[in-house]
Write a structure and sequence with these properties.
single chain, 7 helices, five-stranded mixed sheet, 24% helix, 281 residues, globular, alpha/beta, seven-stranded mixed sheet, Nucleotidyltransferase, domain 5
């Protein structure tokens, strides 16, 4: 069943039973414009519930998220395990061989804005560290409501999951969320490029994609591009990209899990980061 008019949207399976909360893993996505969570039945490996909120104010994001949690009976249940992914916060990627914890803030500040506490994730498959910052107000929400949750940046989760897909050939992944696109490129199972850009129009999106491909010397006729997130097949963004990139397709849900028919209303390329979060924490 899907409910919600404009905000929020929730989907639950007919088998969902919050009375069995201790059989579920809770995955949460937190950002300054977005808050979502889903519940995975760890016995059947089936997603039984998902809820998505678009926040109304960036300036009051922490207060709005706190109110959402306080008014949500389901998310405050006692789950078997919990995880949180931070979405769309400033970040930079460095080789593990060059990473030093005491220099993380300096490295991040050199490349982008520092918005709060500096955190670093280790991406073992690529021998890299993602350095990012999260506002203290957001971290306070996690410590107050989800103190046992494992934490990671969604960007780290996506890189790890992309590396598990078939990357023997040259392949690029585009993840679109809240007018931000993260472009990730693999060659022979090795991460070559990962960067995020804010865009406002379809022309902006095309420019950043083509610019990145040009810097990487990639042929738009040959490169395989997989799209995830806030884009629809045959919408104006997809169509403009397809005018320039021939091997363009929408991504699929993670094959490791089951999705009941109630989830059919949610396109398969949506919320890939949320649904794969449990695999990376």
């Amino acid at each position: 069943m899907e409910t919600g008019e404009n905000n929020p949207i929730s989907i639950q399976s007919d088998n969902f039973n919050i009375g069995l909360a201790n059989s579920y893993h809770l995955s949460i996505q937190l950002g300054i414009s977005h808050f979502s969570y889903c519940l995975l039945n760890t016995i059947t490996l089936t997603y039984d519930y998902v809820k998505m909120h678009t926040l109304s104010s960036v300036d009051d994001a922490a207060a709005e998220i706190t109110e959402i949690i306080n008014n949500d009976v389901i998310i405050k249940s006692e789950f078997s395990t919990q995880s949180v992914a931070f979405v769309n916060f400033p970040s930079t990627l460095v080789p593990s061989s060059l990473y030093k914890k005491e220099e993380a803030e300096t490295i991040l500040a050199f490349n982008t804005e520092v918005m709060g506490k500096v955190i670093a994730d280790t991406i073992l498959s690529q021998k890299a560290n993602l350095i990012y910052s999260v506002p203290e107000s957001i971290l306070t929400i996690v410590s107050n409501f989800f103190p046992k949750a494992k934490q990671k940046a969604q960007e780290s989760i996506l890189i790890q999951q992309y590396s598990q897909l078939n990357t023997n050939t040259e392949k690029a992944y585009l993840y679109l969320n809240q007018k931000k696109v993260t472009i990730t490129f693999f060659k022979e199972n090795k991460l070559i490029f990962n960067n995020s850009f804010d865009y406002f129009t379809k022309e902006d999106l095309l420019y950043f994609v083509l610019f990145s491909f040009e810097q990487l010397k990639l042929s738009t006729e040959k490169i395989k591009v997989i799209l995830f997130g806030a884009i629809e097949k045959d919408d104006e963004y997809f169509n403009l990209l397809y005018d320039y990139i021939r091997n363009l397709k929408l991504g699929k849900r993670p094959h490791q899990f089951n999705f009941p028919t109630e989830f059919d209303s949610l396109a398969e390329h949506k919320y890939f980061g949320l649904f794969t979060q449990v695999l990376c924490v």
